[in-house]
Amino acid sequence: MTSLEAAGASISVLLLDDELTELLDAPAASPFFRHGAVDVLDVEPAAGPVAASATAAIGDHPDAVPTAFAERVLAVLAVLPEHAEELRELDAALGDGDLGITVAEGSRAAGDAMRRDPSLEPAELLRRAGAAFASANPSTFAALVGGAVVGAAADLSGDPLDPLVASALASSVADRIRARGGAEAGDKTVVDALLAGAGAGTDLDAVIDAVRRAVDDGAERTSKRGRAAWLQERSVGLRDPGMVAYLRFLEDLRATRTR
Amino acid sequence: MRKIINDPDAFTDETIEGIIAAHPGALRRAVAGGRALVRADAGRSGKVGIVTGGGSGHLPVFLGYVGLGLCDGVAVGNTFSSPSAEQIADATRAVDGGAGVLYLYGNYGGDIYNFDIAADLVAAEGITTETALAADDVASAPAASRATRRGVAGMIYAFKIAGAAAERGDDLAGVASIARRVGERTRTMGVGLSPTILPAAGEPTFHLDEGEMEVGIGIHGEPGVHRGRLETADQIADRLVGAVLDDLDAPAGSTVSVLVNGLGATPLEELYILYRRAARLIAERDLSIHAPSSATT
């Protein structure tokens, strides 16, 4: 097992018993591994793989008049990839460094999904954007955030351009991430940022201030979830990249308001 | 970044294209153009299927362990990223021979999330699945929270042994139980000497100064438990074997198998220097090593 071009090594030990020994000694063969007297499988190549599972594109209306909600979210998704480098750096310090790619590719895919028919209701646009975000660059963050947005969209009532609706949406997304990922408040994850923002009322400036404070407070604690938790006390002093991603999203949201 | 690649974003797909072109009689895609690969004879009636998966960048894990007496299918994600639930479901449908499918992979949040969704998708189509996770890295969590540890090179033992159990005709519950037993009895710890560069990111995932090493590193460059001066091979073996055996707590007189694994750039020579010391340490604990032991990259 490798980690691309990393140098280093690991040592594994398996405590055997009679049955495990017999199975370990059994013949096996793949193009990369062979053990015992058996040849690599070599059958006649199949006539052709079965058809790709089609993703329906019927009912697309890319030329439809976008709702105000769609225009605003698309404007934010267009600039979010600019934070990829910052998020990659933060994530490389705490995890595996793929959050920049996840946010950049996820934002592009979510935007593409919404543009297929930007005239749809906010709930349907959110559902499509969440599903696209989750699968664009599959990762824990993408799956949890994208899946939570899909779930929260189902419960959405109203237009998230209404600050009260937006606040409820952020709480709903946080609840779903906690339920699926197990993160609790204070675990130093994006959940903390979502809850801080949702608890700060309906003024976007106040929400952004609260989320920024949550990011800074979190930096003083240890990470309790995901890869970052493996660092244990060494995570103290580092800002959580998921929390910073939400902060940047809100800042971009404010910037598009004043355009 | 010095890599022999084309478009960084095509890294995973072009890797898969090359492997399929080289081994057309051994591996095939589950669906056209997809990232789910299965044994060329996948779907044998009555045999339990084993599907694994994870990010690319770990060869020969994961797709290198798809073959006779091993796994039956794999879903390949982007570099160090989980495969999607749909890719996992594609692999599952292709390998199911009516006896059910075991999901066998490393303990990572994104993978668990997507394999769980895939299990829901195929359950609706009548395919039964079970899950066994590799969580062998002793550096990633203390023994008290062993279930939260990440899965690293020790998962190769689970592929080999569960694969043999499925090949001899065990049922799904039996294959899953064997895989979990291997997991309970496997421990791993590693050390990193230089970082990884993700093709699409272009930057090292962490920085190590000349003469430093990261003790307890993960397979995605996750920092370990301690960073210090680079030590000799014997000192490194003492650290790794000591931590692994203390955690495993094997009764004196028992038999073990040992795997020394390279992270990609470390030559076999150095791995055998580690093995030399590891074998001595294991003997000193009154344990015997089952031959053949393997040193792989």
Describe this structure in words.
The complex is a heterodimer of chains A (259) and B (297). With 259 residues, chain A is mostly helical. Chain A has a single domain, classed as Serine Threonine Protein Phosphatase 5, Tetratricopeptide repeat. Helices cover 55% and strands 6% of the residues of chain A. Chain A contains eleven helices and three strands. Chain A has a two-stranded antiparallel sheet. In chain A, strand 2 and strand 3 form a beta hairpin. In chain A, helix 2 (68-79) packs across helix 11. Chain A is globular. Chain A starts with 6 loop residues before the first strand and ends with a helix. Residues 47-57 of chain A have low confidence and may be disordered. Chain B has 297 residues and is an alpha/beta fold. Chain B folds into two domains: 10-184, 3-Layer(aba) Sandwich (Rossmann fold); 191-296, Hypothetical Protein Tm841, Chain: A,domain 3 (2-Layer Sandwich). Chain B is built from seven helices and twelve strands. In chain B, the strands form three sheets. Chain B has a six-stranded mixed β-sheet with strand order 1-2-4-3-5-6, with helices on both faces. Chain B has a three-stranded antiparallel β-sheet with strand order 7-8-9. In chain B, strands 11-10-12 form a three-stranded parallel β-sheet. The longest helix of chain B has 17 residues, at 268-284. Chain B is globular, with a radius of gyration of 19 Å. Classes of the chains: A mainly alpha (259), B alpha/beta (297). The interface between A and B is large, with 75 and 126 residues.
Provide the CATH superfamily of chain A: DhaL domain
| Distance between the ends of chain A | 50 Å
| Percentage of residues in strands of chain B | 15-25%
The mean pLDDT of chain A is: 88
What is the H-and-E element order of chain A? EHEEHHHHHHHHHH
Kindly provide the radius of gyration of chain B, computed on alpha-carbon positions and rounded to a whole number of angstroms.
19 Å
Helix content of chain B: 25-40%
Under CATH, the topology of the largest domain in chain B is which?
Rossmann fold
Task: Give the % helix of chain A.
Answer: 55-70%
